[in-house]
Structure formats: C-alpha cells, structure tokens
Amino acid sequence: MLLLLVLIAPFAGAVIVALGAPARATALISSALALIATLAALTFYNPAQPGFQQLLSIPISAEWGLSFTLGADGLSLVMILLATIVTLAAVWFAGKIDKHESAFYACLLLIGGGATPAPGLAAG
Q1: What sign has the CA pseudo-torsion 55, 58, 61, 63?
Q2: Per-residue pLDDT tens digits for 98-110
Q3: How large is the greatest C-alpha to C-alpha distance in the chain, in angstroms?
Q4: Which residues partner with 68 through β-bridges?
Q5: 3-class secondary structure for 23-87?
Q6: Both ends of the chain: CA-CA distance in Å?
Q7: Is 77:41 a contact under the CB 8 Å cutoff?
Q8: Which one, of 110, 116, 95, lies nearest residue 24 by Cα?
Q9: Which of 116, 30, 121 is nearest to 78 (CA)?
Q10: How far, in Å, CA of 67 to CA of 58, rounded?
Q11: SS3 category, 122
C-alpha cells in the first residue's frame, strides 16, 4: 500500500494544483508525502528476504489474466528513494515563478511521478 501512495501522490498533487490549489504548498505536501511513504517502505523492507516485497496486486481483467502489480526489491527501493528526494528538492529549491506557477509545479510533479520506477501490467 505504501508503494501505491508513492506512485499516486505526485500525480494527485499535479491534478490538485491544476484544479487551482496553491501551487507551491500543494507540490511540497505531495512530494513530501511521497518521500515519507518511501522512507516507511524502506523501514519495512527485510534485506534477508529475497525477491520483491510489499506486493500489491489489483486484478484488471481476469479473462485476459491482467493485473496491476506493485512490488519492490532493495535496488528499486533505493531508486524510488532517490527519485522522491530529487522531486522534493526540485520543488523546495525552485526559485520565484513569475508566470504560470501552477503549470510549472504541476509539470514538476508529473515529471517526479514519472521518474519513480513503476510497474506496468502483469499477465498472470
């Protein structure tokens, strides 16, 4: 469930910013939420257990055997941590935005959410 929060938080923040919420504050909150969820996922990670952990699978089509599956191993958790740190740093250190502030922060969150390693559809 934590990995789903890491994946959804930046995209939800971008949508909320695009709908008119205060851009910088919303971007800070959503990127910080993604970082906190990543840190929580790291604390629950057991390095002695091989393979993917914190698996979440949501069936999409039983007829075709498709499901949306999230999971992370040690390396992918480190990559997710780096992506969430960079996203928060980019929002935090962005200078004064004179024009199109909402568009800037929405795009920044979309880029940050897209940089987070995420799965696709799994056939199974």
Answers
A1: positive
A2: 999 999 999 999 9
A3: 51
A4: 58, 121
A5: HHHHHHHHHHHHHHHHHHHHHCCCCCCCCCEEEEEEEEECCCCEEEEEEECHHHHHHHHHHHHHH
A6: 20
A7: yes
A8: 95
A9: 116
A10: 5
A11: strand
Closest CA to 42 of 91, 87, 9, 75: 75
**3 CB contacts (<8 Å, ≥6 apart)?**
37, 41, 54, 56, 70, 71, 72, 80
Token pair listed for 32: 């910080």
Residue 122 has pLDDT above 60, yes or no: no
Residue at token pair 């695009």? 18
pLDDT in tens, 21-72: 999 999 999 999 999 999 999 999 998 998 888 888 889 888 998 888 888 8
Length of the chain: 124
C-alpha torsion 6→12→17→21, nearest 10: -100
- Which two structure tokens, joined as six digits, stand for 51? 């393979």
Q: For residues 6 and 39, is the Cβ–Cβ distance under 8 A?
A: no
Record the tokens describing residue 36, joined without a space. 């906190």
